[in-house]
Amino acid sequence: MARVYIFKGREARVNKAIFWILAMQSPLTIYDIWRRLRTQRDFQYIRYNIVNRRVRTLKEQGVIEKIGERKTKNGFQATLYQLTLRAYLSILLDKLDMDFFLKKASSDEILSMLVILASQQQS
Prior knowledge:
two-stranded antiparallel ribbon, single chain, 12% strand, elongated, 6 helices, Arc Repressor Mutant, subunit A
């Protein structure tokens, strides 16, 4: 299994939970993400500021993007967030077993993977 930088370290559990929530119910505000996180057993006592900080960090890393605003009950504007293509790719790479890919992939699939990876090494 390939380890993606977003899913390493202390924040990995919260990042994965935020990703899965946004993948299923996007777009959401930070408050909505926090409310849905609290329904999960492992995150019942997670604080809003933790989720706020993680979402803003993920936005700076380019895996979550702003797509608009929504008016709240109090009359304020809340930003709506959704996952980027980079986030969906990181979820897939986290689940992908490279040994399995190397054993089962055809020559054409391996060649296309080599071309993609080689082009990234040169830039």
